[in-house]
């Protein structure tokens, strides 16, 4: 049986927010690993929710850029 290209499992992409912070984008799900606002490494549970555990910053998806 052959696999289709759109099998529903997209590969996660590393992204930044206008060059700051670090997140992983997996489809529509955003995991915020390093906050672009306060530069702190995020707690794993908060990272999966897409906001900063330290300063409660929630980044704008409009600011997403591919990580280099």
Describe the structure.
Residues 1-21 are annotated as: Disordered. It comes from Methylobacterium goesingense. This is Cysteine-rich CPCC domain-containing protein. This protein is mainly beta. The chain contains one helix and four strands. It has one helix spanning 44-49, and strands at residues 13-17, 20-26, 29-34, 64-66. It has a four-stranded antiparallel beta sheet. The longest helix is centred in the last third of the chain and has 6 residues, at 44-49. It is globular and about 30 Å long. The termini are far apart. The model is unreliable at 1-5 (pLDDT under 50).
Return the average pLDDT rounded to an integer.
88
Q: C-alpha Rg, in Å?
A: 13 Å
Strand order of the largest sheet: 3-2-1-4
Give helix and strand order, one letter per element, not per position.
Answer: EEEHE
pLDDT under 50 segments (min length 5)?
1-5
The residue fraction in helices comes out at under 10%
Report the count of strand segments.
4
Shape: globular
Could you give the distance between the termini? 36 Å
Largest sheet: 4 strands, antiparallel
* Approximate strand percentage: 25-35%
Output the number of helix runs: 1
Instruction: Give me the secondary-structure category.
Output: mainly beta
């Amino acid at each position: 049986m052959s696999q289709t290209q759109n099998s529903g499992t997209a590969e996660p992409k590393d992204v930044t927010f206008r060059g700051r912070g670090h997140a992983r984008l997996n489809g529509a799900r955003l995991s915020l690993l390093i906050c672009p606002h306060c530069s702190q490494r995020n707690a794993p549970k908060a990272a999966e929710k897409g906001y900063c555990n330290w300063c409660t910053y929630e980044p704008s998806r409009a600011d997403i850029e591919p990580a280099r």
